[in-house]
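Minutes, methods subgroup
Present: GH (chair), OT, SY

1. OT presented the first of two proteins processed in the latest run. Sequence and structure tokens recorded below as shown on screen.
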Amino acid sequence: MGYLTPILFRNDYIHELVSDPEQLAKIVHDASVSSVSKSYGFVAKKKNEDRRWWQFWKSKTTTSGILANPVKALKSKHADSNRVILVNGNSWIDLSEYIHSTKWRVSEEYIEEAVKIAQRHVSELKKVLKARQEKGN
């Protein structure tokens, strides 16, 4: 098997993304070959500049200077590795990254809240699964 790269598209800027499929393909390719999580955003155009929006795109690992982050990518991992990814509000997190990591990019409180949300969903899913099994489906 190969590698998998989860990519998140925020709908707020989807009209910008689809206006240049070639640049979108470059962003997807860059994310797919990366060994780190990245955000892709664009910076503001200067007044009276006649450049297309994608000429302002840049890949980043920090938030400085970016007006929008319509594309975020988690780092690529081999398809044989297990991941638990939680999407919560306007953010997402690969909880699996924090099991063996000593350097956390987010607070313990954020991880704790993410774990509670994941546990709640697992609990509900177990109930649904049990009901289906009892019903014979």
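2. SY then presented the second protein from the same run.
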Amino acid sequence: MLYKELDLPAIPNDIIPSKEEISNSTTDTIPKHTSFYQTFQVNPELHKWLKDYINLTDEYKAQFQFLTNHIPVHIDYGRTAVLNYLFETGSIDPVYTNFYSKDKNDLLDRTHKIEIPCYKWHVLKTNHLHDVSYIPGTRVALSIWASNINPWFVS
């Protein structure tokens, strides 16, 4: 399974910073920023809420992501799965996360096209080829990875 929505509690609005507050916060330099990908540190109130309400290991990494334009086909470095929560898709039109395999000629073949909703927890397998379709605005998400995320893929 490459994508799975999870029945976890919604993040309360009063601890979600605005896009402007996030962009004015400390940037996270891992992974390296690009013209289409930026990361920012999570505020202490949200960290506390995550520890209280989401079943994560003590050692986890959480950051806000800003994605713009088209995120090219890639495999994430240093993680096999990620827990995400979208706040804004960055578009009034559907934005898709696509998964790919390579055919016998090493050409990409899209195997899955997923429209991910806002305000819903989901897990993505990031050790498979994937991209995000064109985003005219800024997609804002919370992205978390930890050692115990992979078990959430068990059906």
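Chair's summary of item 2: The first helix runs from residue 19 to 23.
Next meeting: continue with the remaining queue.
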